[in-house]
Amino acid sequence: MSTPVYKRILLKISGEALAAGQGFGVDNQRVHEIAAEVAEVHKLGVEIAIVVGGGNFFRGVAEQAKSMDRVSADHMGMLATVINALALQDALERSGAFTRVMSAIEMNQVAEPFIRRRAIRHLEKGRVVVFAGGTGNPYFSTDTAASLRAMEIKADAILKATKVDGIYTDDPVVVKDATMFDTISYLEILKRGLRVMDATAIALCRENNLPIVIFNLNQRGNIRRVVLGERVGSLVNEG
């Protein structure tokens, strides 16, 4: 199969994925590997928007932020996502994909402000769009930002890239006999309290019936496989 099943996708990448196991900062080689995969999928004619996290620099709910005001900590996390977005933009353009960074927090020297119609126009013109700054509001995760932006640009699906193969009954790193779901409903995730995406993000997708595919980013070619409709990872839908 070589025809994409999705015309427009929202790819969610964590900040930690860009750190490549270092725990902090951006691993240049890893960023270019991810960018090359995205560019390869883009050449199939798929319109791609990306939401990137900031956990490789700062996370508002992390241990290091516990003594801080939550709003200040979340704003720091949002700024971290801008750093990651710029790194991705550079790597994507080196891979041949014209890219625009749009930030929910205005910083005109480095990124365009997020304007929904302009974002859609960029996608229609064949540009990859990287959304930075989360939702622009504290107390909301980048998972929620991914769900919100996916709805706003009318994406066909959210592809959440993780370090595990899909959604499991328990943490597969801790519980060795945890089993993976091929398909699971939004409601089942909320009922079981599975920490796939936060509850707000799942609820948003459920209300708008937007499918989510959870897959392993560390396996080369998985983004392409998901886009081409292969059974990779776990599919979240109405069930």
Kindly describe this structure.
The chain is α/β, with parallel strands linked by helices and 239 residues long. Helices cover 37% and strands 19% of the residues. The chain contains 8 helices and 11 strands. It has helices at 15-19, 28-42, 70-94, 116-124, 142-152, 186-192, 199-208, 222-227; strands at residues 8-13, 47-52, 99-103, 112-113, 128-132, 157-162, 167-168, 180-181, 183-185, 212-216, 234-237. Helix 2 packs across helix 3 and helix 6 packs antiparallel against helix 7. The longest helix has 25 residues, at 70-94.
Stated plainly, the CATH topology is called Carbamate kinase
Written as H for each helix and E for each strand, in order along the chain, the element string is EHHEHEEHEHEEEEHHEHE
How many structural domains can be distinguished in the coordinates? 1
Radius of gyration from the alpha-carbon trace, in angstroms: 17 Å
What's the tally of helices? 8
Global structural class: alpha/beta
Averaged pLDDT, please? 94
The fraction of residues assigned to DSSP E strands is 15-25%
**CATH superfamily caption:** Acetylglutamate kinase-like
